[in-house]
From TrEMBL:
It comes from Durusdinium trenchii. This is Protein kinase domain-containing protein. SUPFAM superfamilies: Protein kinase-like (PK-like). Residues 1-36 are annotated as: Disordered. InterPro entries: Kinase-like_dom_sf (IPR011009), Prot_kinase_dom (IPR000719). PROSITE patterns: PROTEIN_KINASE_DOM. Residues 50-300 form the Protein kinase domain.
Length: 300
């Protein structure tokens, strides 16, 4: 699903060295080929291993597909078009960085990487041009976006969801990684209320220059808006907003009066279907959220 993104106030950063591929064969760079393209040449070809069956979701430069591997197992394939990414000015380091984060960090509440492949041919159901970097993940069948549950006011206990998300984020943070794209579209929840955090496309390493200057505006932390380096607090801010959404059923970001985002109006979004479905929970969190709901155009 396309999301609202905006350039953060962060200054353009120097590009660091391209990440090392952890492929079985070393990628040698040929003249005229980008380093990422050279990495791609060392990967197995998607078509030899996976049959594409349907589209599951799409973003700015990627499409997520449902496929079946040779054993018949369902897999999710996030196909990132290098050409589309280049057109959008996406840093190649960021694209490969998504793979590296998934390789590095495993946790029951983080999307599980199965393999990384390449496609040099057009992909069924995908308009963008090849080549594609294909991230093969465990397919989360019977799971739906957290946003859908909030919209339908069909969430289970919020505390259980928050604990799983906090645990997943703590795992990332322990590896000095900040997710930077925590919001209800990047979280899937299954019938047993098991939560999975997806989409490491905006993830950054602590103490390293940022590879991405486009962030999901409504969830951007005040520190990011002020151009400060990314930090774990960026995820904490987004999680806090998400908690208010879960507890109140309302989109909160447009109520915070973000005077720190000069020239960038935080778009409003109506996610509530039932009136205040969760406010009957008289927990401290619900009370804080209730107060937040009363905020009108004040500075944060
Ligand atoms: N492993 C998975 N199993 C089931 N559905 C998935 C899986 N991974 C992604 N999806 C679906 O595809 C959608 C898009 O995935 P994701 O958020 O990773 O990509 P994106 O937002 O298009 O990426 P980007 O912002 O990096 O361009 C998700 O919101 C989810 O609905
Ligand atoms: Mg996403």
């Amino acid at each position: 699903m396309a999301r609202r993104v905006a350039r953060s106030a962060s200054p353009q950063v120097e590009r660091g060295p391209a990440p090392k591929a952890r492929t079985s064969r070393p990628a040698t760079q040929s003249p005229g080929r980008s380093r990422l393209e050279s990495h791609l040449r060392s990967l197995s070809k998607l078509q030899a291993h996976v049959r594409v069956e349907a589209e599951i979701g799409s973003g700015n430069c990627s499409v997520v597909l449902l496929g079946k591997d040779r054993s018949g197992q369902e897999v999710a394939v996030k196909a990132i078009s290098l050409k589309a990414a280049k057109t959008l000015g996406t840093d190649e380091q960021r694209i490969w960085g998504e793979v590296q984060v998934m390789r590095e960090v495993q946790h029951p509440n983080l999307a599980h990487l199965l393999d990384v492949m390449a496609s040099w041919e057009p992909l069924p159901l995908v308009k963008a041009e090849p080549p594609f970097l294909c991230i093969i993940m465990e397919y989360l069948a019977h799971a739906e976006a957290l946003s859908k549950r909030i919209r339908e006011a069909s969430l289970g206990p919020v505390e259980r969801i928050v604990l799983q998300l906090a645990s997943a984020l703590a795992r990332l943070h322990r590896s000095d990684i900040v997710h930077r794209d925590v919001w209800a579209e990047n979280i899937l929840i299954d019938r047993q209320d098991k939560v999975t955090l997806l989409d490491f496309g905006c993830a950054e390493r602590l103490q390293k220059p940022a590879t991405n200057n486009k962030l999901n505006l409504p969830y951007m932390s005040p520190e990011s808006a002020a151009g400060r380096p990314h930090d774990v607090g960026d995820d904490a801010w987004a999680l806090g907003l998400l908690i208010t959404e879960m507890v109140t059923g309302r989109f909160m970001a447009d109520r915070l009066g973000r005077v720190d985002m000069s020239g960038a109006e935080v778009p409003s979004r109506n996610i509530l279907v039932a009136p205040n479905p969760f406010l009957h929970l008289h927990t401290p969190v619900a009370l804080i959220c209730h107060k937040l709901l009363q905020l009108r155009r004040q500075s944060v």
